[in-house]
Design goal:
Elements lengths: L4 H14 L4 H6 L11 H6 L6 E4 L3 E4 L18 H5 L2 E2 L1 E4 L3 H13 L7 E4 L18 H8 L5 E5 L2 E7 L18 H4 L6 H14 L2 E2 L7 H12 L6 E2 L2 E2 L18 H9 L5 E3 L3 E8 L2 E8 L5 E6 L2 E3 L5 H8 L15 E10 L10 E5 L7 E7 L17 E10 L8 E9 L5 E6 L4 H21 L2 E7 L35 E3 L14 H18 L2
Parallel strand pairs: 3-14, 4-5, 4-15, 5-11, 15-23
Antiparallel strand pairs: 1-2, 6-7, 8-10, 9-17, 12-13, 13-14, 16-19, 16-22, 17-18, 18-19, 20-21
Helix pairs in contact: 5-10, 5-13, 8-13
Length: 543
């Protein structure tokens, strides 16, 4: 029996494929071999001595060579700031939430074979590897209790008592509801982007985020109450679109991350074009020279400063931190930090008769979207005790089913609602501390009154008993936006229609702060769509 060169060739290829390593790594075990298609038999014969295994009656071959790879210390590859400071990047992304993750993914997808270098810095640390709801030990109450822990998130400012910031890889997408409606045309028709182009990017965002309208499929609770709403004056009501992957595991592909988070953007990007990622790396200043970006100043937990070089920077730090970085960088712009918006938020609690709903009861997942005439949005969820049922959580049978409405109202975009800094008041990183000025206008208050009356009408339409309505503290919606909004006029906007800061070449914004307005609609899908568009613009301008 003879061993053919072709057999050795195939064996090495198999070893490389199984272990997900290039065949050139196997060749590196013998530095005299440089071509994977030449002298493979010689390479086998010159491997370090190993015990033999008998094949057949009279032929023996060496054992497969050991696979030696560098150790991975974390669940995602990390790079030190010292190493990043030695490199020069084509783009640096600041922040890893929905906007930063989407921009990174798109750049890596478009530049997969272009030899580009991307750096990413995240102010927070590694917290969760997936959305919190995907973890079996979590349920709705535990998720909220974990998020509100001061070790995980922190208040923003007294002016927004309900708002909190989360510093962690993946940002607030580790905890979001995954509700992903598109902004209505009545809200976006004045934006500096055509509806056709925006819809195209919505489609890309919905595809990559696994947005589905079938999250509640087969649920009698949703079907019955939705039919009642549509038949009694609320025809615009529908199943809420959610970024959840309902595909089962198949063809060897493991499906466990049902709820989408930016961690999936990071994973998809990593497998297209490896990037350098540093956590606990707080970007404090964008460095510019003659109106052009030259890099970012980053501070470590030890308060050591690093300068990361790049001629393009994407700020995705959130609607509070992005303008804060810009203001600390001396970037001029009349609108930077201004026009801070969020949603007014009400919680309505109601009870439905359990006998009205056949099995399976399922979940409640109804959205009544904002319209031009009704500047508010209703999300009906339930049953008690949470929005999502975990695999080990048994829902007790009660004669009444408790349901809840999260009601978001449009807030006027006013110049006086703002994020600002006082240079003399600095934090431990040497940055001016975040300051916020915010209040509801009389128009906002009138919308809140209308939201309350509409909730009563919807309860009657659904034939449920409305138990209570209460208003949440300002900022509790976590939909803060518009502090670096895009537009054509530098006097009323911070960026142009592609998210580039007016008058600064190479400096972009790709988070909620870039939204021209926020209406009453969940902003994440729109932020992702615009971030992908900004990444496409960078790629096209770099050709």
């Amino acid at each position: 029996m003879r061993i053919r060169i072709a057999d050795i060739h195939d064996t090495l290829r198999s070893i490389a494929d199984i272990n997900n390593i290039p065949i050139t790594y196997l060749l590196s075990l013998n530095p005299r071999i440089t071509d994977p298609d030449q002298n493979l038999a010689g390479m086998i014969m010159n491997l370090p001595p190993a015990s033999d295994t008998e094949i057949g009656n009279d032929v023996s071959v060496p054992l497969c060579p050991p696979v030696q790879l560098p150790y991975l210390d974390n669940w995602i590859p990390l790079v030190s700031l010292e190493e990043m400071e030695r490199n020069e990047y084509d783009v640096i992304v600041v922040g890893t939430g929905a906007g930063g993750g989407a921009a990174l993914w798109r750049l890596c997808e478009r530049w997969e074979h272009c030899g580009k270098r991307i750096g990413v810095v995240e102010a927070g640390d590694l917290l969760l590897q997936t959305h919190a709801v995907n973890i079996a030990t979590m349920n709705h109450e535990r998720v909220r209790a974990f998020f509100l822990n001061p070790k995980v998130s922190e208040p923003v400012a007294p002016a927004l008592p309900g708002a909190r910031q989360l510093f962690a890889l993946g940002g607030r997408t580790l905890f979001w509801s995954a509700v992903t409606p598109r902004m209505p045309l009545s809200e976006t028709e004045t934006w500096p982007i055509s509806p056709k182009e925006l819809n195209g990017y919505y489609s890309i965002a919905e595809r990559v985020m696994n947005v589905t309208n079938h999250y509640d499929i087969g649920s009698s609770l949703t079907n019955v109450l939705l039919e009642r709403l549509q038949e009694n004056g609320f025809s615009e009501s529908k199943s809420a679109p959610r970024a959840v992957n309902l595909e089962s595991s198949r063809l060897g592909l493991i499906q466990s991350n049902v709820y989408f988070s930016s961690i999936e953007f990071l994973a998809a990007a990593l497998n297209k074009l490896p990037y350098d990622l540093a956590v606990k790396a707080r970007a404090v200043q964008v460095i510019t020279e003659q109106g052009k970006v030259s890099g970012v100043k980053v501070v470590s937990p030890e308060r050591k400063s690093y300068f990361l070089r790049s001629k393009k920077v994407i700020l995705s730090a959130n609607a509070y931190q992005t303008p804060r970085i810009l203001l600390n960088s001396g970037i001029q712009g009349e609108a930077i930090g201004h026009y801070l918006t969020c949603h007014s938020k009400l919680i309505a609690l109601a009870a439905a008769n359990r006998s009205d709903f056949p099995e399976p009861l399922g979940i409640l997942n109804i959205i009544t979207p904002q319209t031009a005439e009704k500047p508010y949005q209703y999300q009906w969820v339930g049953p008690d005790p949470g929005r999502a049922h975990q695999p080990y959580q048994e829902i007790p049978f009660h004669k009444q089913v408790m349901i809840e409405a999260n009601i978001f109202g449009k807030v006027e975009a006013r110049y006086e609602n703002k994020v600002y800094v006082i240079p003399q008041l600095t934090d431990e990183y040497g940055m001016p501390k975040l300051q916020v000025s915010f209040s509801f206008s009389q128009k906002d208050v009138e919308i809140i009154r209308r939201m309350t009356e509409e909730a009563k009408k919807m309860a009657l339409a659904m034939k449920v008993d409305l138990i209570s309505i209460c208003q949440r503290p300002a900022g509790d919606d976590f939909h803060d936006s518009s502090t670096c909004r895009m537009g054509n006029d530098p006097a009323t906007s911070a960026t142009n229609r592609y998210g580039q800061i007016h008058g600064v070449s190479g400096l972009y914004v790709a988070d909620n702060s870039v939204l021209p307005s926020n209406g009453a609609t969940n902003p994440t899908l729109t932020t992702v769509a615009l971030a992908i568009r900004t990444a496409d613009y960078i790629v096209e301008m770099n050709k």
